[in-house]
Amino acid sequence: MEGALLSVENVSVYYHTPQGETEAVRDLSFQVQKGEFVAVVGPSGCGKTTMLSLIMGLNPPSKGQVSFPQGPCPMGYMLQRDNLLEWRTLEKNAILGLEVQHKLTEESRAKTVGLLKKYGLGDFLSHYPSQLSGGMRQKAALIRTLALDPEMLLLDEPFSALDYQTRLTLANEVFSIIRQEGKTALLVTHDIGEAVSMADRVLVFSDRPATLKREVVLDYPRGMTPLERRGTPAFQDHFAAIWKELER
Amino acid sequence: MNYSKEHAAYLRAIRTHGWTVGLCRVLVLVLLLGLWELGARLGWFDVFILSSPSRVLSAIGRLWGEGSLLIHVGVTLYETIMGFLLGTGLGILLAVLLWWLPFVNEVMDPYLVVLNALPKIALGPVLIVWIGAGMGSIIVMAVLISLVVTTVTVLSGFTAAAAEKQFLMRTLGASKGQTFVKVVLPAGVPHMMSALKISVGMSWVGVIVGEYLVSKSGLGYLIVYGGQVFKLDLVMASVVILCVLAALMYGAVALLEKRFRK
Description:
The complex is a heterodimer of chains A (248) and B (262). Chain A is α/β, with parallel strands linked by helices and 248 residues long.
């Protein structure tokens, strides 16, 4: 571990609506180390997504602070749905972020196309999103994020809109892409199996207002893929432990 | 290609169905025109009031002979196209402006609703006083009718344009302008196309009503004039020409839509 990339300290978030004030997050503290894969699980609507937009800097916390001890940390956000633009080809979709940030050069384009090719989308560069399967679309969305070369990836239930089989395969692929590209990742999900099979560490959140209930460090041998992990007894144990924690 | 017998039969059935529908459509027209002509010849009704297909044709021939057919058609077509282009152009521009300034949009909303509900035709006399009894009033009438409906339709397309995609643009660090150009505008194209289709019909309504009120030429003028002097042949002839023109213009817009949707 090379030190904390992200540090969340005593953060609380309140939501304001005309009906009143809702406490979405309460006194939350955790850190994410460089190169780590951290998963956050919790019941639906417990403020996990609120926390991500907080980290992304889209909304400020009501109390506490979010800091990046190693200096500014470029982040990429991956949503539940791929949100590829239907009128753009796969390649044009992948370079959307580069275009927006005026970073589109011959070099950056070639690098992005390289990523698409490397991860099995090379034959579909000039296809439109509607011609691709859900899994491929979501992978293209990941590469759109990677094109901007973020230090840390925020994954907001990125597999929950997919069918079960695609979900398992894609989780495997995304995991290996993130490892190969050497990214730090923070995955938010309500799927315990997903968290336990992908992460190095799982943070269990309580129901709203979200607080950190428990932290589970997963001690799989290094280099195991999510699918392989699912077959181990350790997976079952962790799964059961987190399930119990959420039940309480 | 080699298909199974079953698939070949299926394809044949689709083709037959298409043919049958097309044939029946033509038959309906032929039957109606035939009955109309037959009734006129056999004296089932007074041709003076109901006219007949052959009399309509000869009325069109007469207009052509006098050399006034093209003038009337030209005037009406010009007014309609101007009204359509200005109405949709300004309407889309207004929708962009209202999307860009949500506060103004919120303030203007009830006014837009009232304007949309108001029969713009009621403003006819006002327009004549303000602009004068001429082509200007007619075009402005067409613009008014198509403008409001275009604004409302296109704006709803813009605001519906995938909130999540706009959020995505924020996470990529896009400015409002970039979000508009790269997401909102292209996502609004289908709405703009349906606005164009509605607007075409609206422009015709505006122009014909305008011509009823003030004109000295044009198809609307011919209809009113024909009615006043009881030349029903002329009225029917004008309506038939109008049908053809309106269908052609709608077809052109539909063709444009097809190209854009590709």
